Amino acid sequence: MNSEVIPREQAFANARRVLDAARDRRDRDRATGRLDPEVELILRRLERQKRAEQAPAVEHRAAA
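Given the sequence above, the corresponding structure tokens read:
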């Protein structure tokens, strides 16, 4: 059994490339209105949550 070992950095780079491609595909589908309405609602909810989590951190830095 002779298998090639992929370096950690290369494995992460490969995973990032695949994830970025999937996000690009999702964004293109979203822009053209091809996403299922339920998926669109989920994405909007997640985006709202992300903005809510990031907002206090920005305000905190401004106050410091």
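The radius of gyration is 18 Å. Try to locate this feature in the token string yourself.
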